[in-house]
Amino acid sequence: MARTWPWQRVANSARHNQQTLRHSPLAEISGALGDLGTLLPLMAALALQGSVSLSSTLVFSGLFNIATGLWFGIPLPVQPMKAIAAAAIAEGASLRDTVAAGALVSAAVLLLAVTGLLRRLADVVPVPVVKGIQLGAGLSLVISAGSGSLLGNLGWFEHPSVFDNRLWALAAFIGLVLTQRMAPSSTPSGHAGGPLFLPYALVVFVVGLVISIVVSALHAHLPHFHIWHPHIVLPHWLDSHAWAMAIAQLPLTTLNSVVAVSALAEELFTPSLLSSLSSSSFTPATSVTAFGCSVGAMNLIGCWFGAMPVCHGAGGLAVQYRFGARSGASVVLLGLVKLLLGLFLGETLLDLLRIFPRSLLGVLVLAAGLELASAGASLNTYSHGGNDNTEEGGSYTSIQKRERWTVMLMTAGCLLAFKNDAVGFVAGLVCHGAYRLADYLEARRSNRNRLRRPGHGESRALLS
């Protein structure tokens, strides 16, 4: 097989991005905005308390969006490291502690990637466990959408304002339900006779942005021109809080941001889909090694400038795909916008982020969770081992299907119960191992019974 050089991969990816964007521009733009429900609230909360630099976060996450879009050629998200973000918000962590935690996680993931241990982990982890991680992460997003920071504390009319309440959330939810069949198909939109497509995420974001600008104008808090002045931040490498946050984040990053993303990318971006989107021969890099190196490089660069710790995520990939994105063009466009905002507006955007309606963000987070959780539906129908299984589940028997569902639900259930990816992962492995042990013992017992039947050597009775 001929070797593909880095510049050739970037050229092929750029050609694929360009052709997809030309055929379906609205879908790519809508898909780019799909993951903002996860990004905006965490980024705003961290920036408002000084745990990250907003301008540096926008600049570097924008650069990373552009780089990953050009390299991978798929709508790979650049989103906050959620465990670190949650701990930093709860404890009021300093800027140096937060970036140190992100860098420590990235160094570990990068080491696992370059040594090949990540690839071996992905090879040995059973598919039902990976699906359980995806299902659990999706349901976690659904639960977080109803939390107090988003939809939980909303009133019906004037809480927190007439522009942000349960009526707006209800309207956004009804819009989400009504547009379920208006999602883009596997073929480029715009073709004659193609399905109706409504860029739901784009519409919701524009409505929220208009509301934020109007409210900001009424209070004289509109963003203004402010050039980014980068400054070096020395992370607190030895601080105990940084290490505690990093240890909590490492299983989530390894499993959901690398292993689960790799599995989901291979499932979503099949050769038939890619060939229908562009005439160029393009194969995305979906290996766990590539994703691990990407996560490691991003934070080991951005941490020195106070940028928010970021990673990839199966939830972000699922929701960007759900809202229309089919190529890296979507995240390249998003990255360009973030880069310009960080360079020329920076910290002046804080008030605008603070005002953005939680009712609309909460519904976007809900949509992201539902889309990721739905990945579990293909557990017994999708071909994971290279064999093209039939719609009824291929070679899986009814007992095997039930056992695979049990392993997936055990993984997801323990993840949700203990709010820890590592606990869910171990529980799923134990459940899977128990079934395999039962198969082994059953096979041995069947073999012994077969040997003891008449006509099988010394096991035959002497007096018969």
Automatic annotation (TrEMBL):
Cite the InterPro entries for this sequence. Answer: MOT1/MOT2
Give me the segments passing through the membrane.
58-78, 99-121, 133-155, 167-184, 196-222, 285-307, 328-349
Q: Which UniProt keywords apply?
A: Membrane, Transmembrane, Transmembrane helix
What is the recorded name of this protein? Sulfate transporter
Annotated organism of origin: Sporothrix eucalyptigena
